[in-house]
TrEMBL record:
Protein name (Swiss-Prot/TrEMBL): Glycosyltransferase 2-like domain-containing protein
Record-stated family: Belongs to the glycosyltransferase 2 family.
Pfam family, one: Glycos_transf_2
Any GO molecular function: glycosyltransferase activity
Originating species: Mucilaginibacter polytrichastri
InterPro entries: Glyco_trans_2-like, Nucleotide-diphossugar_trans
Annotated Glycosyltransferase 2-like domain residues: 28-195
Key words of the record: Glycosyltransferase, Membrane, Transferase, Transmembrane, Transmembrane helix
TM region(s), chain numbering: 290-310, 322-343
The keyword Nucleotide-binding belongs to this UniProt entry's keyword annotation: no
Length: 353
């Protein structure tokens, strides 16, 4: 309840700019793509045709063997503001996404950078403008956006979408409180100067994941980080369609969490553990009559509090449908987030694709 009311409720104070920003901030959009021929064909035009006066799109073709080079060359002939960076497999060392992102940043023409993935589609033609407008403040070095998953139906899709929304509520509200701890590479931005000032990903290059959250965790401050939550600034992604693929993805993501700052690990750990214990003790109390009515009363009280806090947030974050079955979704969320957290801490992963 403390975490819900004191931390997550902060997001309800966010005031989004309704009118389209008039500032023209030149931007380089960077996309790392490994064997993404199908997604590049489907989604890249939506990036290249953004209604923004001055921008380029830098696609890093990272060791692809699926014909991505042919597709990118065809796009480049049509869109002169597309820049292609080709990375080839090295026998001496294994390249990863951080290496690809670094090559893209070095090739970028502009000082302001936006990041997304090859399987992402902007919610509008004003995605770049909405995100880039935050760079108008010279103190802003990091911009945290939001990237929901498409609603396709089924249990797995519901789990993925709900967890994405809860994660967004956590990291966006934390940023508003001056305690930013992560961002999502499907939709974020930062200044090129900051990247080189902190020597890029040098401090965590040995971890395959973390090009987004670990970079933010290490370099975000109370004053240099802002969030962008206008629906036109979202980027939608295709969710995993099998539990195996989802498990592999979550294991990779959670593995980076062990390198978070201590205060952030304690904050996230307290939320995850308290949520799990709440539901575990609730079901345990149902077995004993003297405690059953007290437990049910507390359960309903918490549910009402969640509705009051989450109603506006979930509506904005494309999850309005979860409001009325929060107890079920929330129970499942705290169960598997603790499992993934434990697995991610113990296991190692050596690939990003």
């Amino acid at each position: 309840m403390v975490y819900l009311l004191a931390c997550q409720n902060k997001l309800n104070s966010y005031k989004q700019l309704t009118e389209l920003p008039g500032a023209v901030i030149p931007v380089s959009v960077i996309i790392s793509a490994r064997n993404e021929a199908e997604n590049l064909t489907k989604y890249l035009p939506n990036i290249l045709e953004q209604q923004h006066p001055e921008f380029e799109v830098v696609v890093v073709n990272d060791c692809s063997v699926d014909g991505s080079d042919v597709i990118l060359d065809a796009f480049q002939a049509k869109y002169p503001h597309l820049k292609i960076v080709n990375v080839t497999e090295s026998r001496k060392f294994k390249t990863g996404k951080k290496f690809a992102v670094t090559m893209g940043i070095k090739a970028a023409k502009y000082a302001q950078l936006l990041f997304t993935d090859a399987d992402c589609q902007p919610a509008s033609a004003h995605w770049i403008t909405r995100m880039a407008a935050n760079f108008e403040n010279p103190e802003t070095e990091i911009i945290l956006g939001y990237s929901p998953y498409y609603k396709t139906g089924g249990l797995l899709n519901s789990l993925i979408r709900f967890e994405t929304i809860k994660t967004a509520v956590n990291y966006l509200s934390a940023a508003l409180r001056g305690n930013a701890y992560m961002g999502v590479g499907r939709n974020m931005g930062y200044r090129k100067e900051l990247f080189f000032k902190v020597k890029g990903f040098a401090s965590h290059m040995h971890i395959m994941s973390g090009d987004d959250d670990l970079f933010v965790n290490a370099n975000a401050t109370k004053y240099n980080t802002v969030i962008e939550m206008h629906p036109e600034s979202f980027t939608f992604s295709e969710p995993k369609t099998s539990f195996g693929a989802w498990f592999k993805q979550k294991k990779r993501h959670m593995g980076a969490g062990k390198l978070y700052k201590g205060k952030h690990k304690r904050m996230l750990g307290a939320d995850a553990l308290s949520g799990l214990l709440f539901y575990a003790l609730f079901f345990a109390c149902l077995a004993g009559k003297p405690l059953m009515y007290v437990a049910i009363s507390l359960f309903i009280f918490r549910w009402v509090a969640q509705i009051l806090v989450y109603r506006k947030q979930f509506t904005t974050l494309q999850g309005k449908d979860f409001i009325w079955y929060l107890p079920l979704a929330d129970t499942l969320y705290y169960f598997y987030v603790n499992i993934f957290g434990l697995v991610g801490t113990l296991k190692k992963t050596n690939q990003w694709k």
